[in-house]
Amino acid sequence: MSTPVLDRTAQTEHPVLDVLADRWSPRAFDAENAVDESKLASALEAARWSPSANNSQPWRFIVARRGTELHEGIHAALMGFNQAWAGNAAVLIVAVAETATADGTPISHAVYDLGQAVAHLSVQAHHDGLVVHQMSGFEPEKIRAIAGLDERFLPMTVIALGDLGDASELPEALKQREVAPRVRRPIHETVVLSA
Q1: Which ranges of 6-160 does DSSP label H, i.e. alpha helix?
Q2: Cα angle 89, 91, 93; round to 5
Q3: Residues 6 or more apart in contact with residue 114 via CB below 8 angstroms
Q4: pLDDT for residue 6
Q5: Which of 35, 63, 107, 183 is the most exposed place for a label (fewest CB within 10 A)?
Q6: d(CA 94, CA 77)
Q7: What is the mean pLDDT of residues 112-138?
Q8: For the whole prediction, is pTM greater than 0.90?
């Protein structure tokens, strides 16, 4: 499939690594290509090696390839807006935080550490030519039921991963968002104190 290339490079205030400036979150995924398993493995490996407090690694992933019952179940747990496009992704990954140990001790940093693992996953995937889009619009209890997760495991986000698709195939409202300018608030609004 020939996919038009969009230049989505961030216009940063200060220099950053190309892989960070070029990374973005498309909704147009190639609905035909299967995921390159070695690239998926590398993305998961990058997540595995991300930092965590006390090396506790309080993250788990549910990995569902398109065409499987698991992929269909996760897709069904997405809220309507996300269902409109995410089913085309070669892989849907649920990022799960381990919020307590097996003996019930809370892991206060679990969500923070999971976020780092997902960031590592997304940067590695982008480096390898895949695209990633994270979603908070899903029903966690449906995911919990599908995976048989204990209460101490909290589904936090669903990640669409695969090859970039053709934005012209998206519904009109999504098409516009796909090509809209990328914006971020200025650093001076993000840093609340600096001495």
Answers
A1: 18-22, 37-48, 69-77, 80-86, 110-127, 140-147
A2: 120
A3: 58, 59, 95, 96, 97, 156
A4: 66
A5: 183
A6: 11
A7: 98
A8: yes
